[in-house]
Amino acid sequence: MFISHLPKLHSHFSIFYSTPKIIITSALLSKSKTTPVSHFSSVTAAANTLLQTPELLQTKNLEIEDVLEKPHVEISVEKLFFPPDTDVSSGSRPLSSRILKGSNIVLSKYAGNAQVEQAEFVKSSVDTEACPSDGLPEFALVGRSNVGKSSLLNSLVRRKKLALTSKKPGKTQCINHFRINDSWHLVDLPGYGYAAAPHEVRTDWAKFTKDYFINRPTLVSVFLLIDASIPAKKIDLDYASWLAENKIPMTIVFTKCDKRKKKKTGGKKPEENLQDFLELIQKFFQTAPPWIMTSSVTNQGRDEILLHMSQLRNYWLKH
Ligand SMILES: Nc1nc2c(ncn2[C@@H]2O[C@H](COP(=O)(O)OP(=O)(O)OP(=O)(O)O)[C@@H](O)[C@H]2O)c(=O)[nH]1
Ligand SMILES: [Mg+2]
After folding, report:
1. 160-182: average pLDDT
2. How many structural domains does the chain have?
3. Closest protein CA for atom 13 of ligand 1
4. How far apart (Å, rounded) are the C-alpha atoms in residues 97 and 95?
5. Is residue 127 part of a domain?
């Protein structure tokens, strides 16, 4: 079962907000945590009432106040992502206190049980049919070779080498399933666009991963990784376009957001590259897809992604 991108909720939401822009808090572009404790406690209380997810607040190492935005960056409402079945109008808290840090993702009542307690490698499969058949929901990490898929997987599970990484592109070659908490899968895929690969191999790659996206019934969502330290690449735009066209639910994960040296990164900061990319793909989508900033070096975005995965997964399990 696939989750759609919620076009209906968006128009519903507009009724309640007459101004098109909201101010969202935002550590979006900064890593510092200087907000006073009193603000933290009010956000926690709000999240508790509004989201009705007590398990979220009790989750070890994952405090709600650390994953929500603090207002200082503007994102217009139509650029936010509302997870399915998000009761946008309920509760007294402003929407701005329900957005995951460094993202456009609104936290829903389905968020919870986000902590990774256990992670193990299950198997490497050469095609979709060979993938595990236990029916567990899964999320696939896809992106250009060397974008940081395996590194992100390791960051999410807090292990250095569960998935193998390399400076050389083309390290991951099969569909690799990792079982989390015995209840869901993270899937590491081979990268696309590896220039050194022969043309036939590249074509095969496209065929085999695209077959997986279309024919894997337990795939809850694809996580498309984009390197935010460099300007947008055509192949990434093509991929985003293909996923949108085929209505494959996706989240865009901007990687390497720790790389801030302008000279090495094509003259732009990660957040500038991110804006450019989002503008370029806007035309592919009817409603804004979810996106989030990450770094596997600083672990930026790790808890936020896990919460987002939990809300998609819990919704999927109930529908
Ligand atoms: N600075 C920085 N480097 C990163 C980050 N994520 C990954 N890297 C580096 O990028 C290189 C590639 O990382 P991988 O995780 O192996 O990339 P991959 O997408 O799995 O690559 P393939 O398996 O070849 O498709 C490694 O040298 C990583 O250390 C990040 O967030 N920040
Ligand atoms: Mg890899």
Report:
1. 79
2. 2
3. 148
4. 5
5. yes
Which residues form ligand 1's pocket by a CB distance below 6 Å?
Answer: 143, 145-151, 165-167, 169-172, 190-191, 255-256, 258-259, 295-297
Whether residues 89 and 128 fall in one domain:
no
- DSSP strand E in 10-135: where? 21-25, 71-76, 119-125
Q: Which atom of ligand 1 is nearest to the CA of 259?
A: 1
Name the residue range of residue 21's domain: 7-98
Average pLDDT over residues 168-192: 85
CA–CA dist 107, 97 (Å, integer): 9
Question: Same domain, yes or no, for 263 and 179?
Answer: yes
Q: How many residues does the chain have?
A: 319
pLDDT tier for residue 214 given thresholds of 50, 70 and 90: very high
Strand 184-188 and strand 138-143: the pairing is parallel
Q: Considering the chain, what is the average pLDDT of its residues?
A: 77
* Residue 80 and residue 212 in one domain: no
| Contact between residue 264 and residue 119 where contact means Cβ atoms under 8 Å apart | no
